[in-house]
Amino acid sequence: MATNEILRGLMINPERLKDLATEAKEFALQHGVLFRTNETPNSSEVATYAPFTLFPSPVPKAVFHQALAVQTHFNTLVDKISQDPGFLEEALASTIQADDFTAKLLGIYRQVQHEGRTQSIMMGVNRSDYMLDQREDRTSSLKQIEINTIAAGGFGVADHLPVVHRHILRLAGLLEESQCVPDNNSTAGIVRALAKAWELYGQQKAAIMFLVEDVQFFIYSHRHVDSELWKRGIPVIRRKFEDVLKAGFLDRNKKLFLDGLEVAVVFYRYGYMPNHYKEKTWEARLLMERSLAVKCPDIGTHLAGTKKVQQELARPGVLERFFPDQPQVVEQIRATFAGQYTLDMGPEGDQTVAMGLAKPDEFVLKPQREGGGNNFFGEDIVRMLEEVKGDKRRAAYILMDRIRPKVEHNVLLRRGLPLQLSSVCYEIGVLGAYVRHGGEMVLNEVAGQILRTKSIEHGDGGICSGVSVFDSPLIY
Length: 476
Ligand code: ADP
Ligand code: MG
What we know:
Blueprint: H1 2-11, H2 14-30, E1 34-35, E2 48-49, E3 52-53, E4 57-59, H3 61-82, H4 85-92, H5 95-98, H6 100-115, E5 121-134, E6 140-148, H7 161-171, H8 175-178, H9 186-201, E7 207-211, H10 219-231, E8 236-239, H11 241-247, E9 249-250, E10 256-258, E11 261-268, H12 281-290, E12 294-296, H13 299-304, H14 307-313, H15 318-322, H16 327-334, E13 340-342, H17 347-358, E14 363-367, E15 376-377, H18 379-388, E16 397-401, E17 408-413, E18 421-437, E19 440-455, E20 469-471, E21 473-475
Parallel strand pairs: 4-21, 7-8, 7-11, 11-12
Antiparallel strand pairs: 1-2, 3-17, 5-6, 5-18, 9-10, 10-11, 13-16, 14-15, 14-16, 17-18, 18-19, 19-20
Helix pairs in contact: 2-7, 6-12, 9-10, 11-12
Bound molecules: adenosine-5'-diphosphate and magnesium ion.
Magnesium ion binds near residues 146 and 372.
């Protein structure tokens, strides 16, 4: 890649590297690629640039299009799973014995199912993440790492990165390459879905509520979406679980009200980790789930994104259950699956334990957690498996083939980080947005892509955890 040559040149010319990095940072700030700072995560007085790569990363055209093309099928799949209590119960039966958080979520799912669902409008925003597995013949194949069905992030901010990357490539004299960085419009896709759900709800004065966290690093990401909604005349409010607990109530018809406002859509930006909940918070979650408000996501869709469900889907014959007459769709989805193995009690799980202990470097051990920094790699797999292998605690995990992506070189730009050449690898995230009304999908779209790049010294990733940075694809 021509960028590699440029990078080599920059490494022996630190002044030039510094100039280019300064140009990139200022361009990013100017175009709204913004982040709050670690020191003042809730202050409206201080902002910095969202961390990103100096250059975009090369992504083969075929796999890029493959990832985009399969997304609407993943939207449909997640939606079908969310409405299949039989499947969810069976898939999660062992997990809930070992994982209290998943058990609590399933408890709410059961309760809502039992009471009868109140809202037939459903909306989802998910992000399917992939790495490119390097084959021996040096071609690469697209492998799904996970699918995020709650609070999938990165939209908004990442829309403005291609402009920055094209500019940097041009400054570096790579005009042709600058034309290979595609536009990204995740904001528009998510706004279309939120607006559609709001419109179907059918109450002009009702608001879309972003359910947010205490520490609001990603506010500028949200702002891109909420300003577009306001432009369409759709009111947006931001509330925390505690606010819902204090002021939220359901009227006779189960309409959700808060501070005198009716809520049409609850857009969860939080609530995906056990530590997001205190005892009382669960009451707020249940209140929203029971309400007539459209939930993005509802509790079934949240559960459809668990690692355990992902592992069950990789079993032979399971995708056919959801697409009985569409073998091509099954094939398209299955092509992205890496090997995944159950750790439930029994002979199959025993075999997985033996495999993980024998070759820990070939696998990743994953608990039912989100948000990065939870997985086990290498010797930590052995330590963990030795600890839990004898009892049902092991069912809280799954084992997955470890993907070995191609190593690239880049300079990671993050506030306070020295400018240096790093060996990196990227993960492609594809956003999908959909709205279902009763039995009919009324909107089902791909809503842009998000590349996240990290230094290869890290096994796990995550922008929040300070490991990964935003990136754009350079399609070749
Ligand atoms: P989370 O929900 O915490 O984000 P992920 O499944 O996305 O969990 O895993 C977090 C990170 O761990 C990923 O971003 C990736 O860097 C790494 N990872 C996860 N699964 C694999 C895998 N099978 N092979 C290689 N790396 C992986
Ligand atoms: Mg992830």
